[in-house]
Design goal:
SWEET_rpt, transmembrane, SWEET, repeat, globular, sugar transmembrane transporter activity, mainly alpha
Amino acid sequence: SDLRQMLMTKSVENIQFLPFLTTDVNNLSWLGYGCLKQDWTLIAVNAVGAALQTLYILVYLYYSPAKRPVLLRSLLLLAVLAAGYGYFTLLIADARMRLARLGLFCSIFTISMYLSPLADLAKIVRSKSTRCLSFPLTITTFLASTSWTLYGLQLRDPYITVPNVPGIVTSVVRFWLFWRYPPGQDKPYRPLHA
């Protein structure tokens, strides 16, 4: 929906850049994990995800009036990825240890991504409005994290299973918030009289 909005309005107004960047890092990290593990499911899904996120970043950069900060953040992402690649491939010789450390990194990063929307929890409860939440994104997060949890359980891979459980939990919390504060029920704010 963000990409569609950028293309229709030819603007990045009200669209945050950081989610595109962090999701790209997440996809590229899991792609590396899949390559090390030789898991074609991880490779295919995360290659497509990384390609789409990179496309979103390029579209955002194209329509952004302030290109310099977007470009600097993107270059920082590339520098972090290059440093990570160097660390995981050059400094860790043992393949099992490399897989374990990369799996741990991917898990921690994924958990932080799933927990980040809860930062708005107090604002949502205070305002009694779910306007800042995306219902389609909540559904997608729930389905994706549930699928990856089941896949991780099937493979008996805790690096895939564990970080996706918070995605299920945070999605359930967001579903509850949508139930508790339905989007159409937002209380209108009246200006204060002076």
